[in-house]
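Hi everyone,

Forwarding the result from last night's run.
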Amino acid sequence: MANAVVPESERQYLRVLQMQGRDRRFSFKWDGAYFEFEKLKALVQAEECGILQWQVLLGQLDSSPQATLEVRLLRAPPRPDVLVEEQLVKRLRTFFFVLPETEHVFRIVFVKDLDGFERSSTAGKLSTL
């Protein structure tokens, strides 16, 4: 089929590259589902959430190979136009499809300041997933 489109003189320069999987720069997998960073970013950066900084940490239980997911959040002080904590938690649990059987591997942590976030081991920068 490509022979009909690509001149013979150009064919020697073509290579077929078959990629499998997904690009981890744009999504991550947890509990059998893929989550896109852009969708998560849109959720946590929505004005009504009042989130100043956020971080997602993927891990593993010590007792099994089951993956864990922790969301760390630094929120603005409460305001009338910002969701209360319970509403935000519900929104995140819905986004990540947290079910009763996965509650033990999902956690939301509200940090008080930037020291509550994991930092990169090389430069001490805050890293998001």
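The chain has a mean pLDDT of 84.

Cheers,
N.
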